Amino acid sequence: MTEYEMVELLRRRGDGRSSVLLPQVRNGVGFGEITRTADAIEFSCWPSRGLHLTGIEIKCSRSDWLSEIKSPAKCQEMKKFCHFWYVVAPEGVVKVEEVPQEWGWLEWRSSQRWSMKKRSPYTMSPRPISYELFGSLLRNLSVNILGPARQAIWEEGYKAGEKDGNPALPDWEQEFLWIKTLDYLSQESELMPGGSSRG
Of 83, 87, 163, 185, whose CB is crowded by the most CB atoms within 10 A? Predict the structure, then answer.
C-alpha cells in the first residue's frame, strides 16, 4: 500500500463536510532554516465538534516507521501547531509500545476497515499558526483541491461546447467559474472528508 492510497482512504472516511484534509503540508513557504513536512493535515470545520488541527504521519512500511521513531522530535516543527498528532499505517506496521506518548495511532486493517488503536491526547493550547504555515496551507489548497476542481470544470465545459460546435466557454460562464468550483467541491469531489483522525 502506498502513501497516496492511504490519503485516499482517509478522504473517504468522512462525510465530506465537517473537515478538510490536505496532503504533504510544509511548515512554511520558501526554504527556511528548518523545513519539515507533515504527510497530511486535517482541519475540523464544525464548531459543534470542536475546531481543531490534526497532524498525520503516514507510514506504509515497518522500516519507514522504525526510522521515524528514531527521531520523534523531527516532527515538532509541525506538531507544535496541532491539537492532535497521529501515525496512520496499514496493519502490521506499528506496535502499540512504539507509539510516542503524545501521538495517536489509526490503523487500516486487512479486513478493509479503520481501527482506532490509540487516541491522541488533546493539546489545549498549540502554537498559533504562523504566516509561513498559513501561506503553505493556502498554496497546498490551491494546488491539491482548487486546481483539480477548476480543471475538471473547464474540461466539462469544453466537452459540452464541442457538442454545440463552440468549445470555448462564453465570457459570462467564465465569470461564474469560481461559484461552480465551490459547488463542485461541496457536492461532487469528496475532497473534503471529516473525522479521519479525530481524537
Answer: 87
Separation between Cα atoms, residue 25 and residue 43, nearest integer Å: 12
Report the distance separating Cα 23 and Cα 148, nearest Å: 14
Here the cell at position 120 is: 491522541
The grid coordinates of residue 103 equal: 501521538
- Distance between CA 88 and CA 53 in Å, rounded? 16
- Per-residue burial over 120-131, b = 16 or more CB atoms within 10 Å of its CB, e = otherwise: beebeebeeeee
- By the 8 A CB rule, do 87 and 64 touch? no
Give ∠ CA 78-79-84 in degrees, rounded to 5: 135
Domain ranges of the chain: 3-118, 142-187
Model pTM?
0.69
